[in-house]
Amino acid sequence: MTNYPSALRTPLSRADFGPGFQWGCSTSSFQIEGGAQAGGRVPSIWDTFCEQPGVIRDGSDGKVACDHYHRWPEDMDLGKAMGLNAYRFSISWPRIMSAPGAAPNEEGLQFYSDLIDGVLARGLVPWVTLYHWDLPQYLQDAGGWSSRDTVAAFVHYADVVTRRLGSRVKHWITHNEPWCTAIHGNFDGMHAPGLKSLPTALQVCHHVLLSHGLAVPVIRANVPGARVGIALSLHPVMPASDTPQDLEAVARHDAFRNRWFLDPLYGRGFPADTLALMGDAAPVMQPGDVEAIAVPTDFLGVNYYFPEVVRHDPAGGFLATRVIHPEGRERTDFGWEVAPQGMTDLLLRIARDYQPGEMYVTENGSSYDDVVQADGSIEDHARRHYLVRHLQAVRTAQEQGVPVKGYFAWSLLDNFEWSEGYLRRFGLAYVDFATQRRTLKLSGQWYRDFLHGAA
Ligand code: FCB
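Above: the input record for the complex with beta-D-fucopyranose. Below: its predicted structure, written as tokens.
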């Protein structure tokens, strides 16, 4: 443990957040596992995407990543040493379902069964995400999420996984960030499968939400005592100026970025104004879909990174908005605005407008260009400062009555950051990708000390 001078001690302690608060780190399968061909895994859309020249900034892929597939015991030892009591990870669908209509892949299920035993043995509560963007390629070949058949395929996959693992895993997250699945994957093409079609993206968005709604009762049926939710990427939306045009732009932008997901999930249906703006690009929905999406859940997962500043822009797509990046704001080395107040505002707003029974910050973190010192240490003061201030922001929301019951830092390890490859480091532990050596950064040491009541 570090001996902190009193001036550096945080005016917060683990205990302030309440008993049973979940203290975790988050990861996702494609970003850390590697083992691309191990255990009968078949290609995902990300394997295919990475083969396209120019789409991943450093030309890399996820074939090895953090080699977590082979090194998970060491990684879980690290989580335990940090004092975590929870660990959020995702299951790789292509490890479980190898081909359309095939029997589940026993080796894939066994990998996760062993991992879960390892997580539990170290005193951590496993939080499992079923879909964190690695769709089997064979499903994409048949239309991917734009096909309604993928909804049924997801529900079947969720059924297989929860039957097998549900006696030990109680916390289930259906989807991670449907906005990203839909928009980055199918509209701006930044993510796999790299499509650039608004109608496709909006149809994908609908099917992802529908698959959530249809999977929840299946998970509940398979898992006694299940706690089920979804993790959304949510952003406070701020105006570039106080002109009426920019204020209206904020409302339109917010309606798609946030309310398009929250409203139907919490039984209000899709925002009608946004649906009208979509015009011919609006998704095809069937009777009963909206009701299915509104299935009650046990918690909302909030992934918060940064607020968005928008202005009115007639050339800005169906929303006629543009996200701008004003000068003079604190930013990470990735360029993401650092705005802890946004965390408090967001949590308060969701609690006020939707009253989810419980909320968990399922992701929050920062990417800085870490420098390894001669002695091997990584003195990421900026990341530690980010973490401290965001925890304070969560506590402020809690003090105002928001039922936040956990915080998962993104991420346990530096990893494959999607189209940025290995150029963006979000880990509390540094990964030397040449040697696979893990080193707890100063921020990770601070989190460890905080969780042990010593920071
Ligand atoms: C989130 C993703 C996660 C990671 C962080 C930095 O949007 O869910 O996988 O890439 O951003």
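Notes for the reader.
The domain at 14-451 is CATH 3.20.20.80 (TIM Barrel).
DSSP finds 15 helices and 13 strands in the chain.
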